[in-house]
Structure formats: structure tokens, C-alpha cells
Amino acid sequence: MAESSARDFYDDLAHDYHLMFQDWDASMTRQAEALDGLVRASLGTGPHTVLDCACGIGTQAIGLALAGHRVIGGDLSPVAATRAATEAAARGTRLPTAAADMRQLPFKERSFDVVLCTDNSLPHLLTGPDLRTALLGMRRVLRDDGLLLITVRPYAETRRTRPTTTPLQVSQTRDGRVITFQLWHWHEDGERYDLEHVQLIPEAHTWQVRVRRTTYWALTPPELTAFVTEAGFTGITWHTPAASGYYQPVLTARRAP
């Protein structure tokens, strides 16, 4: 992973991340309902101990905590992790967080029923060795038969079409409309791309333009399935957005004893 790029990207974006949502709290609830459904279908009603190892500003972690689970958040960005804990407290729930690289999770073995790595976070790892290290660490902190849950972009189609931009996304805030889009610059290998995240934020009678940059590895489902299998997980299943209700494809797997 281009560590400085990913950390700098999310440190800088943490203050504005919520501006991508029409209603951030509604998105928290909607995403938590989808993830909670997958957790309960695998492990029963719970509540369960959950590690969100790339929690960002807390979109998924806060929603799951409000749903009754015992959630801990970790993120490479200390700014994002701190904001997640603050936002959780403001909503009447508790979310302990830590600045933690998913390749070096600072938690005891078999500490969690569930490990989440959502919102296309895993593809920030740009090499096979880094990906293997992260997945082995997630397995280490899961209890026997615990649940791994990863969400990524639909990269099978993306690798074929190699888009260079995303559609404009317009969110209404109390200060006006915020426009967000991305520019993608593909590497020669056809698998990795540099992303420019562009936000236009209204300011007085003009626009403030904010650009952040990071890099992703566009892992296809068969590639990610192979890495997860190699790390010692079984029962690997892919769930489409139509089936799960989550906005990205979801991989679920169980920790083999």
C-alpha cells in the first residue's frame, strides 16, 4: 500500500467525507441494516463483537453500534478514527477507535466475532504480500468460525471498461450544493489506478475546489477469493447489492479453526 498516500488522503478527507451523502445518518442506518442482516444470517441474533478495521469516519461502525453490537473501529487515518469516536458519542453510542494499519492490527487473537473491511478499503493494498498480511491479521483476531466481511467495487466490469471518471454526485447541505466526482488514471498493468477525488464546495459567490489523491488495486472477485482462501477462510460467498441491500458487492467468509 502507498501508505503515505492513503493516510494523507483520508486525514485530509475526514473533515468533508460526510458531504458525499445526501443524508449521512440515513446512510449509516441503511448500510448498517444491510451489514447487520448478513452478520445475523451467519452468526445469529447477537449482539456480536465487531472490529471495523477501516472504519473511516464511522459510517458503518456507528450504525452497527446503534444496532446493538459491540464495535471497535480502527483506521490508518488517526484523524478519521478520532472523528468516528466523536460522531458516535454525539449520537448516544460508544465507539472506541484506534489509529491502526490493517496490516498490523493491535488486538488479541480471537477477540472478535466479526471483522469488517468495507467501503472498498482493502484495495488500497497494492501488492500481494500486503494483502496476505492484512488477511492473515484479520483471521488472527477472529474467533474460530468468526465472520469476515469485505466490500469492494464491482471490479470485474471496471477492469474490462477502465472508466476514467465517475458521474457527478450532488449533495444538498445547509450551505448549498456540494459536487463530488472522481478521475481515474489507470496504470500500464491495467489493474491499478490513481484516483483524484474532487469536491466543489460553495463558498461566498464562488466554489472552493478540493482535490485528494490516492491509489487502488482493482481486484476482481476471483482474485480476492483466491487471497481469502489462501489466508485460511472457508465458506466464501459473494452477495450482490440486489441480494444484500448493501451498495457494493460483499464477500463473506468464515475463519477456519
TrEMBL record:
Domain Methyltransferase: start-end pairs: 50-146
Species per Swiss-Prot/TrEMBL record: Streptomyces roseirectus
One Pfam family this sequence matches: Methyltransf_25
Record GO terms (molecular function): methyltransferase activity
Keywords annotated in UniProt: Methyltransferase, S-adenosyl-L-methionine, Transferase
The protein's name: Methyltransferase domain-containing protein
GO BP annotations, alphabetical order: methylation
